[in-house]
Task: inverse folding
């Protein structure tokens, strides 16, 4: 068994089932699907496999399926968030993330975000398609947005990263659209997690940063302020204030 990576935190029981995964995510608060270089956060992969480097087997396939299943069952949030890589967020902390990013926005807010320069036109089109049609799998969503071509697919991927990094969109199940791998199904966070969305509307960004900073320090008590600032994308002064 490989030595534990410095970002992994001690977890007493190996994750073997979906319920174990939810308990791990809740304890961590927020974690990666797989360990990512220069992202100082624990990973669900290590909690389940207890080894590094990553290798594909039944355990890896199991946690890969959880990225779609746990959000669909409203047990955890998942999207490409930290460094645009696969991230789980506990529902206990999702309101703080939404408040921190000032992205607790309803289905009809795409035009406002576009007018404010917070999203591109392609992201607006995807957002409005989901608002109109409900949860859609990747190929369906690309078709609804007229992004079926190779160039359209590249635009689609960039815009989807925008929306996931803003916590507007979450994974929400999977669909077997072709003979290849199952496609991700996506949904607006405001509809997938209405309780957390409503809670976020009553939290200020400053209060949210304070909660997230305390949680991060509970995971890594010796972490420098700049490590946390880089992870969350905060200026150093905001990170210091959050810890203060």
Result:
């Amino acid at each position: 068994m490989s030595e534990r990576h410095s970002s992994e935190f001690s977890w007493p029981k190996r994750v073997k089932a979906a319920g174990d995964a939810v308990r791990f995510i809740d304890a961590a608060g927020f974690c990666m699907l797989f360990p990512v270089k220069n992202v100082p956060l624990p990973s669900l992969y290590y909690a389940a496999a207890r080894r590094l480097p990553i290798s594909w087997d039944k355990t890896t396939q199991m946690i890969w399926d959880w990225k779609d299943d746990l959000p669909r069952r409203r047990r955890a949030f998942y999207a490409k968030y930290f460094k645009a890589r696969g991230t789980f967020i506990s529902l206990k902390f999702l309101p703080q993330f939404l408040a921190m990013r000032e992205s607790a926005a309803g289905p009809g807010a795409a035009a406002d975000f576009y007018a404010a320069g917070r999203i591109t036109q392609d992201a607006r089109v995807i957002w409005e398609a989901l608002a109109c049609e409900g949860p859609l799998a990747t190929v369906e969503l690309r078709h609804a947005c007229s992004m079926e071509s190779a160039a359209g697919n590249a635009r689609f991927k960039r815009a989807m990263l925008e929306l996931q990094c803003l916590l507007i969109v979450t994974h929400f199940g999977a669909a077997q659209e072709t003979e290849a791998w199952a496609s991700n199904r996506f949904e607006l966070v405001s509809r997938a997690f209405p309780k957390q969305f409503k809670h976020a509307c009553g939290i200020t960004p400053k209060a949210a940063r304070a909660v997230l900073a305390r949680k991060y320090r509970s995971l890594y008590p010796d972490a420098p302020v700049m490590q946390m600032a880089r992870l969350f994308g905060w200026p150093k002064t905001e990170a210091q204030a959050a810890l203060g």
Q: What stands out?
A: The domain at 100-200 is CATH 1.10.10 (Arc Repressor Mutant, subunit A). The mean pLDDT is 93. The first strand starts at residue 30 and ends at 32.
